[in-house]
UniProtKB/TrEMBL annotation:
<protein>
    <submittedName>
        <fullName>Cutinase family protein</fullName>
    </submittedName>
</protein>
<dbReference type="Pfam" id="PF01083">
    <property type="entry name" value="Cutinase"/>
</dbReference>
<dbReference type="InterPro" id="IPR000675">
    <property type="entry name" value="Cutinase/axe"/>
</dbReference>
<dbReference type="GO" id="GO:0052689">
    <property type="term" value="F:carboxylic ester hydrolase activity"/>
</dbReference>
<keyword id="KW-1015">Disulfide bond</keyword>
<dbReference type="InterPro" id="IPR029058">
    <property type="entry name" value="AB_hydrolase_fold"/>
</dbReference>
<keyword id="KW-0732">Signal</keyword>
<feature type="signal peptide">
    <location>
        <begin position="1"/>
        <end position="22"/>
    </location>
</feature>
<keyword id="KW-0378">Hydrolase</keyword>
<comment type="similarity">
    <text>Belongs to the cutinase family.</text>
</comment>
<keyword id="KW-0719">Serine esterase</keyword>
Length: 221
């Protein structure tokens, strides 16, 4: 496990060397969060990409909007933007993993019937990787999720995921979450593939992949 997360951290740093992470315009809708006295039907937890303003980011907002549109009318939604720097200090992705883990565990305990959807873009996808793969504290990740939390997670969507460059997709790396995960890479995006199409990393909304990820999640909730 230590080797896996070390590779993950190395992958993030390698991705930074290959392509400057996209800084996308802030288009963040109002955020709601789950509470013990008002449990939503669906709780989305999304980690934004590098350089994006606090919130779920542009790709995250497209994912949230599409997921809402594709699910049963009348279902209540809450959206939690993972709280972490999303800076060029890629090892700080563990801050996001700790924050998300704490929030997810609280929802699973206080709102056991709520269906949780996890998502992340770029460095945010690495945050979700850590959550889904690490079973023990390691490399700054101090709050791994108990195995039973997986029963409350309906779907996982990672987009522009750096781990694809070395270790492969999250679908094959996580025994607990792999079968409920979609891991998308836009063509030759160098952050998640050996390719060199730098612009592809900024086109996940335009390519339709945010919608594709939402469609996958909608079928599982």
């Amino acid at each position: 496990m230590r080797a896996l997360l070390l590779v993950g951290a190395t992958t993030l740093l390698a991705a930074a060397a290959v392509v400057a992470p996209a800084v996308l315009p802030p288009e963040v809708a109002p955020i709601a969060s789950a509470s013990a006295d008002a449990c939503p039907n669906v709780q989305i937890v999304f980690a934004r990409g590098t350089g994006e303003d606090p919130g779920v980011g542009t790709v995250g907002q497209a994912f949230v909007d599409s997921l809402r549109a594709q699910t049963t009318k009348g279902q209540s939604f809450a959206v939690y933007p993972v709280n972490y720097p999303a800076s060029h200090d890629f090892l700080a992705a563990t801050d996001g993993a700790n924050d998300a883990s704490s929030f997810i565990q609280n929802v699973a305990t206080t709102c056991p019937d709520t269906k949780i959807v996890l998502g992340g873009f770029s460095q945010g996808a690495a945050v979700i990787d850590i959550l889904a793969v690490a079973a023990n504290p390691i490399l700054g990740f101090t709050d791994p999720m108990p195995a039973e939390v997986a029963d409350h997670v309906a779907a996982v969507a990672v987009i522009g995921n750096p781990s694809n460059r070395i270790k492969g997709p999250l679908t094959t790396l996580s025994p607990l979450y792999g079968s409920k995960t979609i891991d998308l890479c836009n063509g030759a995006d160098p952050v998640c593939s050996p390719g060199d199409d730098v612009a592809a990393h900024s086109l996940y909304v335009q390519s339709g992949m945010a919608d594709q990820a939402a469609t996958f999640a909608a079928h599982l909730i």
